[in-house]
Write a structure and sequence with these properties.
The structure holds three protein chains of three kinds. By secondary structure, chain A is mostly helical. Chain A is built from seven helices and no strands. The N and C termini of chain A lie far apart (62 Å). By secondary structure, chain B is mostly helical. Chain B has a single domain, classed as Cytochrome C Oxidase, Chain A, CATH 1.20.210. Helix content of chain B is 66%, strand content 0%. Chain B is globular and about 65 Å long. Chain C contains four helices and no strands. Classes of the chains: A mainly alpha, B mainly alpha, C mainly alpha. Chains in contact: A-B, A-C, B-C.
């Protein structure tokens, strides 16, 4: 393998991936894993600020939030949820392939994961376009006249409060989409590394940790989907 | 126990061996280092720059307040000056200072590790800090910010014409620097401890940094997203805190203080850890109630997240919530008091030596106690309503942050200076400056308690003439304080070249960091130490000579 | 301890089963949104979301069967402090007399 030479030069010692300050590979793996989990906690708190805002404002402006929520496309939201779940399956299978040392299977699952991630983003793009067309993007062009629920019943709504809903919608889904973009880039890089054979059953920590990140982004969407799209259909 | 004592021949050697300082002299060997000790020094230099910059703004504030009229500057400039002072001191000095300088240097040494768990992430966090700092300096030079360090909405989103976004971005990036430091510490403390170094044998400085890191990880992301929301509100008119859209400016305060109150404990906890080390060493005694002191750090970290709305008693939160937060705020007093009482109990019937670090430790205990007790007064809703936004609050948090954090930091810097630099500092100059800092500090801030209590509001550039006497006292004190801070910088730099060569363990202190050479080799220990003793086993370590005759060296 | 770490991964069929379970739950929650359950709509939706998240954490992220309890503690503490943020904020918003 041509790359192993470079790795050996970068990190001396028998195990090419073992950094000098760790006693053994197990300690290094445990450290990386704990570090990743702690990072995920910071992500939970990062999104937590927005979840807190959503909770507070939904309680304060219940009718407007319900009316605005009904303008979201459940179809696209549900499709994206399914896409993310399938991508989580491919990620976990990729980790399993890495653990078993099946390089080509690993690369295959990683590529599928990136493609699924991009599918999500494309659908999200269509959703955003719909919002632009309906003037549901907060700002000077914002209009909200859709004050009827699915049964044709009129809901008394202050359009300003609906704008607040869409502010939160764009902030939350936008920040989530940013994480998806980072995730796609990350898995793209890992695909190249995996193709070059950087990973072995003894060392596949980057795949595992990137997988943890991907699952967390999935979990955030699992909550965003009902909160933004579903829970206000009948209220 | 023989294993805790340094063999005599090793301490007397003139350290010809390679250490972390002489292992590479190029600029690249510093800027691309992954050695936690070198990164600590990079931090030391950069936080010192920001400290003196923040101090410069403090002096401008004090000079303006020398007279009742606005003669040095007018309202707009004054607003920017106190904002710059606050933001620099909080985000670029107080939060990183003890963890990123002393913690970075000492955490791996104290637990017998070769380095932090993620050395490259450690370097990354310094670069993030520098990026944030540069951005902030750019913001400052192109007009500054006038929102106060708290970025309160709606002023920061729709009112202010200054460059709030750039300052917010700087805080955001500095936040990630702090997150990565905290993450690194937690993983290191969990995964990299030397064999035999169980949790109940850890130095209290490690416990304190562990608790600090928890807050960094759990709290910092919330302020990160909050300043992002403020920025997008300014940029794209998303109206999350905009009252015109039904948004609630108070939500900003909730999210802001969810981080920024625990951030106070990010600042003070590591200093408390330093004080525990100093007291044990210079009283030559095991810390009284070790387990309680250790766990009180964790308790402060957790309780710290339950009290944030005491910053908002008059802002318009519900009375019911105010009562809950008032009650919870008192609960932080318990673990804090546990620490103070245990330190004093340690001192009881011990053999105390009055070396400079110990003077700072005494200063810390006294000043922190005043700061903490006035904190309890402020947690009482009735008093808080009376003194909110007055100089009483300013005096209170300066007693905690300057009297507490800075005393701990300077004490720690002197204590570990022989380990960091391999040289001793000049003891008599150090004592003089410790005295100046203590006197200057009290002269600066004690009058502000009175000023606040009789009603002088904070954040104004002018005031009624009857407040002038106390303001003059405060400004005079701040000049003394400035000299007290400048002196250590001068004599510590001097000592780098002319100070007496330090032994491996000049204080006869317990702790693994004293068992390696001064300064330590790049990978800290020639052999990974095996710990078989409890922390602070001072009854097994003989006191060194210079502690019996302080100032002799 | 370290031996266990190697065996946390399950069979491919197991992962697919969990994945299909997640898809079924997604379909259920979408379906439930169209049924008027009154105040229970949000409760059901969030309950299902929590079940899904728990499945992902336990099996895809391998918290169940992990060699040490620390990982679980980290996850729990993350959600615990998020709960503090939400509940104490609500302690203010739900008790304001002027809303």
């Amino acid at each position: 393998m041509p790359d192993s030479q470079a790795i050996v030069m970068e990190h001396e010692a028998h195990n090419p991936a073992l950094l000098h300050h760790f006693a053994d590979a197990q300690q290094q793996k445990n450290a990386a894993s704990l570090g990743m989990w702690l990072f995920l906690v910071t992500e939970i708190m990062f999104f937590g600020g927005m979840f807190c805002a959503y909770l507070v404002y939904r309680l304060a402006h219940f009718n407007a939030f319900a009316a605005a929520s009904q303008q979201l496309s459940i179809g696209m939201g549900a499709f994206n949820t399914a896409v993310l779940i399938v991508s989580s399956i491919t990620v976990v299978l990729a980790v399993k392939a890495a653990e078993a040392g099946k390089r080509k299977v690993l690369v295959g699952y990683l590529i599928i994961t990136v493609l699924l991630g991009m599918t999500f983003l494309v659908v999200k793009g269509f959703e955003y376009r719909e919002k632009f067309e309906k003037h549901h993007v907060p700002g000077s062009t914002f209009k909200f006249t859709d004050t009827f629920d699915d049964n044709g019943k009129q809901i008394p709504v202050n359009p300003k409060e609906a704008e607040l809903f869409f502010s939160l919608y764009f902030a939350m889904t936008g920040m989530h989409a940013l994480h998806m973009i980072i995730g796609c880039g990350l898995f793209g890089v890992l695909t190249v590394f995996a193709w070059k054979g950087h990973y072995s059953p003894g060392y596949f920590t980057p795949i595992e940790n990137a997988g943890l990140y991907w699952h967390l982004v999935d979990i955030i969407w699992i909550y965003l989907f009902p909160l933004l799209y579903l829970i206000s259909r009948h209220s | 126990m023989a294993s805790t004592v340094i063999p005599a021949n090793q301490t007397l050697a003139p350290t010809p061996k390679l250490n972390y300082l002489n292992n590479g002299h190029t600029l690249k060997s510093w800027l691309l280092t992954t050695d936690h000790k070198r990164i600590a020094l990079l931090y030391l230099i950069s936080v010192t720059v920001f400290f003196f910059l923040g101090g410069f703004f403090a002096m401008l504030i004090r000079l303006e307040l020398l007279t009742p009229q606005g003669d040095l500057m007018q309202a707009d400039t004054y607003n920017k000056v106190f904002t710059m002072h606050g933001m620099i001191m909080v985000f670029f000095f107080l939060i990183p200072v003890v963890p990123a300088v002393l913690g970075n240097f000492l955490v791996p040494l104290m637990i017998g590790a070769k380095d932090l768990a993620f050395p490259r992430i450690n370097l990354l966090s310094w670069y993030l800090y520098i990026t944030a700092g540069t951005l902030f300096l750019h913001c400052m030079l192109t007009g500054g910010v006038d929102t106060g360090w708290t970025f309160y909405t709606p002023y920061s989103t729709v009112g202010s014409n200054t460059n709030v976004i750039e300052a917010g971005l700087a805080v955001f990036i500095a936040g990630f620097s702090s997150i990565f430091t905290g993450l690194n510490f937690i993983v290191t403390i969990h995964r990299m401890r030397a064999p035999g170094l169980t949790w109940d044998r850890l130095p209290l400085f490690i416990w304190a940094n562990y608790a600090t890191s928890l807050i960094m990880i759990l709290g910092t992301p919330v302020i990160a997203i909050t300043v992002v929301l403020v920025a997008v509100e300014r940029l794209f008119h998303l109206g999350i805190f905009d009252p015109r859209l039904g948004g609630d400016p108070l939500l900003f305060q909730h999210l802001f203080w969810f981080y920024s109150h625990p951030a106070v404990y990010i600042m003070i906890l590591p200093s408390m850890g330093v004080i525990s080390e100093l007291i044990a060493c210079f009283a030559r005694k095991r810390i009284f109630g070790y387990k309680f002191v250790a766990l009180s750090s964790l308790a402060i970290a957790v309780f710290g997240f339950l009290v944030w709305a005491h910053h908002m008693f008059v802002a318009g939160i519900s009375l019911y919530a105010a009562m809950i937060f008032s009650f919870l705020s008192f609960s932080v007093g318990v673990p804090s008091a546990v620490k103070v009482f245990n330190w004093t109990a340690t001192l009881y019937k011990s053999s105390i030596s009055y070396a400079t670090p110990m003077l700072y430790a005494f200063g810390f205990i006294g000043l922190f106690t005043i700061g903490g007790l006035t904190g309890l007064m402020l947690a009482t809703i009735g008093i808080d309503v009376h003194v909110t936004d007055t100089y009483f609050v300013v005096a209170h948090f300066h007693y905690v942050m300057v009297g507490g954090v800075l005393m701990g930091y300077l004490g720690g810097l002197h204590f570990w200076w022989p380990k960091i630099s391999g040289r001793m500092y000049p003891e008599s100059w150090a004592k003089l400056s410790a005295l100046l800092v203590f006197v200057g500090f009290n002269l600066t801030f004690f009058p502000q308690f009175i000023l606040g209590y009789v009603g002088m509001p904070r954040r104004y550039w002018q005031y009624p003439p009857e407040f002038q006497v106390l303001n003059v006292l405060s400004t005079a004190g701040s000049s003394v304080l400035a000299v007290g801070y400048l002196l250590p910088m001068i004599y510590l730099l001097w000592s780098l070249k002319y100070g007496p060569i330090a032994e491996a363990n000049p204080w006869g202190a317990a702790g693994l960091e004293w068992q390696t050479t001064s300064p330590p080799p790049t990978f800290n220990f020639d052999e990974t130490p095996v710990v078989t003793w409890e922390a602070y086993n001072y009854d097994e370590i003989p006191a060194p000579k210079q502690l019996e005759a302080p100032g002799a060296r | 301890m370290s031996e266990h770490e190697e065996h946390t991964s399950h069979s491919q069929a197991f992962y697919l089963a969990i994945g299909i379970g997640l898809l079924v739950l997604t379909a259920t929650t979408v379906g439930a949104a169209f049924v008027n359950l009154g105040p229970f709509n949000p409760i059901i939706a969030l309950l299902i979301a929590t079940i899904k998240a728990t499945l992902v954490v336990l099996f895809f992220m391998h918290v169940k069967g992990a060699s040490e309890k620390l990982t679980g503690a980290v996850v729990v503490s993350g959600f615990f402090f998020l709960a503090i943020l939400l509940s104490l904020s609500l302690a203010d918003y739900l008790t304001r007399s002027w809303r």
